[in-house]
Structure formats: C-alpha cells, structure tokens
Design brief:
This is Penicillin-binding protein 2. GO terms for molecular function: penicillin binding; peptidoglycan L,D-transpeptidase activity. InterPro entries: Beta-lactam/transpept, Beta-lactam/transpept-like, PBPA_dimer, PCN-bd_Tpept. Keywords: Membrane, Transmembrane, Transmembrane helix. This protein is an alpha+beta fold. Strand 14 and strand 15 form a beta hairpin. The strands form 6 sheets. A 6-stranded mixed sheet has the order 4-3-2-6-14-15, with no helix packed on it. Strands 8-7-19-18-17 form a 5-stranded antiparallel sheet. Helix 8 runs antiparallel to helix 18, helix 11 packs across helix 13 and helix 11 packs across helix 14. It has 2 domains: 92 residues, Penicillin-binding protein 2a (Domain 2) (Alpha-Beta Complex), CATH 3.90.1310.10; 312 residues, 3-Layer(aba) Sandwich (Beta-lactamase), CATH 3.40.710.10. It is flat and about 110 Å long.
C-alpha cells in the first residue's frame, strides 16, 4: 500500500512538473509575442519620427516651395518676396509696392530671362519656383522683424544671387535671333549655369494678360523651356557617344580605318553622307572631324545595339538628370532586337533618340572637365536684404561619366572638328575651342524633311572655361547657324 502511495505521489509530482513546464513555455511564448509587438510599435514610432524629421528638415525647402502647400498664402501675408539677381549684381526680378500697398512682380529684362528666371503667378516656374523658400523666408535682423510686426509691415524676403551672367545671356539671346531653339552655357569646372536661353519666349511682366493665349498656342509652345524640356533628335552631336562606345570596346581609336564612298546600304536601307560627299579613306579623327555618316553607321553596326545602349545610359540617357528645375528625360530606345535600319539611324543620332540641350551641355561639360560631371546649379548664394550671406552653393562632383583618358581622347577629336572639320569658323582666335556640329533631320508640320542646327563645344581646350550647347530649330546644318551662335558667345566671354 505504501509503495502504491509513493508511486502515486511521484506521478502527481511529475504531472505538476510537466504542468509547470507547459506554463513556463506558454509564458515565454506570450512574452515573445509581447516583445515582438513592442518592437513593432517602437519601429512604427521611430519611423514616424524619422518621417517627420525628414520632411521638416531634409525636405523643408521643397515642401514649403510646393505649389500645393497652403502655408504659402500665410507666408505671402507676412513676407515681401525677395529679389533675384544675376551673378554680376543686376536685378532679374523684384517686387514693387505702390502707395496703395499693391505688389507687382517686375522683371526688368522681360523676355530675355523669361524661362530660366520663370514666374511666380499662375503657378511658379524656373528659379522663381526653385528658390521660392528662400525668397519667402526673411533672415532680416530680429529687431527689424519685431518692429515690422508691430507696424504691420511685411518683412523683406531673402535675395537670391544666381549664377547667370547678364552679358552672356544677352549675347546668346541675340545670337539665336529669330530661330526657335535654345542655348545653354555652363562652367564645366563648377557646374554653374552661366546662360540659358529658350525661344520662342514670353514677357513675364504681362503674363496674366497673355496667359490664355500662351496656353492655347500649341504650335509655338512659348511657355516650354526648350533648354531643359526640349526633346530633339541629336543628329551628329550623338557621335561623341559613338566615339566613346568604340573607344571602350576597342581600347584605342588608332587602328580604325574606313573607306567612305558617299553612302552605305544595308538590308535595303541607305545612309548618305551630307550632300553625298565622298570622304575616301579615313582614320577615326578624320571621320569624326568631317562628320562622316557612313563611317559612324558602320561603326554602330559593328558595335551593336547593346554596346551603344550601355554607353548612352552611362551618359544619362533614359536616366534622371541632376537638373534642379523642370526638365525632360532624354531617350535612347532600340528595343531588344533592333533591325539594322533602326541601328543605322540611331548611330548617327536619328531613329528614336531624343535629347535636351541641357543634357548635351552636361555631356560636353564632363568631357571638358576630364570626365567628371559637376552638379549643375543656378543659385550662387542667398543673402539677407542687408547683404549678409545666408547660404552659398559649394561646387560638387555629381558623377564621373568617363575616365580622364577617355575624356582626353574625346577632347582631341572635338578639337580637330575646329582645326580642320565642320567647326573651322571657331579657329583663328586667341582662345582655342573644340566641339561637334550636328544636323538633325525631322519631319515638319507640312510633312517635309527639315534640319535642326546643333553645336556642342567648349573653349580654352587645355583648361576649359565654358561648355556650350546650341540648337536652332529647322535652321539647317550645324555649321551655318549653331556654330556662329557659339562663336559670338565665346567672343563675348574673352573679348567683352
């Protein structure tokens, strides 16, 4: 009997131990669940804090500048919008107040800076949009701010000093003349935008009165900033992409040789050289300098679509561009299995390829700057109404688009365009120049084939000062219009 009691007691003890074990296990499981839930809520809380910090610190200017931010109305009630100035200290935009307290935004240069400076009515555009936060923020001294609040006067917004050079802008604007198109001038060493012209243009001083006409005039698209938003076939300026692709594939251009007979036909599709010119036997430099279409067509076929596409995308085609104002993404499109006709057209900058003048200026700038593309910028610094610097832009490298060796090869090729090729109008000056002309065909509204006039280039080849892109819509060859425009701009920079 005692043995049975002992066994029964042991069994009960074992059952109790198993029960306690199950309870401890269940408790640990519950604790794990509580811990996971706690961590989850901690992560959510930290994420919310991070989100608030991001938008209130990192994205503060962008959020406050957004046209969808209703707080702008409150800012406009308290702040008199600051002025926009050129790099040489001239007023590009300011706000005038009459005796009745009515405010008018005034643009002293009218049409000349219309697209790049932009406007602040009917939405905001250009530098007016880019710098909206600074223009509507006052760093006026505290005593003056308090005094203005007491007197119910608006505090003056900060002033924005741009990188734009009034002289270069004026020369570029006048040189483009009556042609629609665009001109972009950059400092390749810093990324500063020195001039940006787009035509047709508009007068920002009469924008409200002209608005209905401007938005309905689809044939001219005068509100479109062609410098950054224009999308054009590049024509022969695309040959810098071909040249880089060939150099990367072969390691050198020294062994290239081609015999130009004036045209090339593959699969029933013919590409002629301009005017049917026969260039004969050419090395790479000669083919580039004389812009031989047949040589570069054959080059494109030999390279293949994938090599061209990779090089184009390395140069930011199909990619986001580092441009802080409104822009159109450039397009390089071959498809997975391009036929020879499309590849042939693409190799000479036709086909489906589209690019903006600003993008071509960026590529040119990188070539001039030993392969490094600097972050482009329009704002040099922000100042208080009393001239104290609030912040300034420090030049920075955006990306290395090519090696220094590759850039030097392209520099040499582009210098020969000026020395003995299609850009000889730029030779014979006290400064050196390099570049590439382009004649891009397109169908006009009447169905006829027309030609855009292109030029990309830089001045002072050994230590470049300016990088430039010019396009004149429907103007003919690059040599006839775009090169003379660039010539005037270079002369203005070096000779005043």
């Amino acid at each position: 009997m005692k043995d049975k009691d002992r066994k029964s007691t042991k069994q009960r003890q074992k059952e109790e131990q198993r029960t306690q074990k199950r309870k401890r296990k269940a408790k640990r499981a519950r604790n794990r669940e509580y811990t996971i839930i706690s961590y989850f809520f901690v992560v959510i809380f930290i994420s919310l804090i991070g989100y608030m910090v991001y938008f209130n610190v990192a994205k503060r200017e962008e959020v406050n500048s957004s046209p969808y931010n209703t707080r702008q109305n409150q800012m406009e009630d308290r702040i008199l919008r600051g002025g926009i100035y050129s790099a040489d200290g001239l007023v590009l935009a300011n706000t005038e107040t009459d005796e009745a307290g009515n405010e008018t935004r005034v643009y002293p240069y009218g049409n000349m800076f219309a697209h790049v400076v932009g406007y602040d009515s009917h939405g905001k555009n250009g530098i007016e949009a880019l710098a909206n936060f600074s223009l509507m923020t006052s760093h006026n001294n505290y005593i003056d701010q308090v005094q203005n609040e007491i007197l119910e006067k608006k505090n003056p917004g900060d002033n924005v000093i741009t990188t734009l050079n009034t002289r270069l802008q004026e020369v570029a604007y006048n040189a483009l003349g009556g042609y629609n198109g665009a001109v972009v001038v950059l400092n390749p060493k810093t990324g500063a935008v020195l001039a940006s012209v787009s035509k047709p243009d508009f007068n920002p001083n009469t924008l409200s009165a002209d608005w209905e006409y401007l938005v309905s005039d689809s044939s001219n698209s005068s509100l479109l900033n062609r410098a950054t938003q224009g999308a054009y076939p590049p024509g022969s300026v695309f040959k810098v992409v071909d040249a880089l692709a060939y150099l990367r594939q072969n390691g050198t251009i020294d062994n290239f040789s081609y015999n130009c007979s004036g045209s090339i036909t593959v699969d029933g599709h013919t590409i002629p050289c301009f005017g049917g010119e026969v260039h004969g036997t050419e090395d790479f430099t000669t083919a580039f300098a004389e812009s031989c279409n047949t040589a570069f067509t054959q080059m494109g076929l030999d390279l293949g679509g994938s090599n061209l596409q990779k090089t184009a995308e390395d140069l930011l085609f199909n990619k986001k561009l580092p441009i802080p104002i409104e822009y159109a993404k450039s397009k390089f499109e071959l498809g997975s299995t391009p036929g020879n006709p499309l590849l042939m057209q693409t190799s000479i900058g036709q086909g489906n390829t589209l690019v903006s003048p600003m993008h071509m200026a960026l590529i040119t700038s990188a070539i001039a700057n030993n392969g490094k593309l600097m972050q482009p910028y329009y704002i040099e610094r922000v100042e208080t109404v009393n001239g104290t610097t609030v912040k300034s832009t420090k030049p920075s490298v955006y990306k290395e688009l090519m090696t220094e060796s590759e850039a030097n090869t392209l520099k040499t090729l582009m210098a020969e365009v000026v020395n003995r090729g299609t850009g000889t109008q730029l030779s014979g000056e006290s400064y050196s120049a390099a570049g590439k002309t382009g004649s891009a065909e397109y169908y006009g509204s009447d169905g006829s084939i027309k030609t855009h006039s292109w030029f990309i280039g830089f001045s002072n080849v050994e230590n470049p000062d300016l990088a430039i892109a010019v396009i004149a819509e429907g103007a003919g060859t690059g040599s006839t219009v775009a090169v003379p425009v660039a010539h005037e701009i270079f002369n203005a920079f070096y000779y005043g």
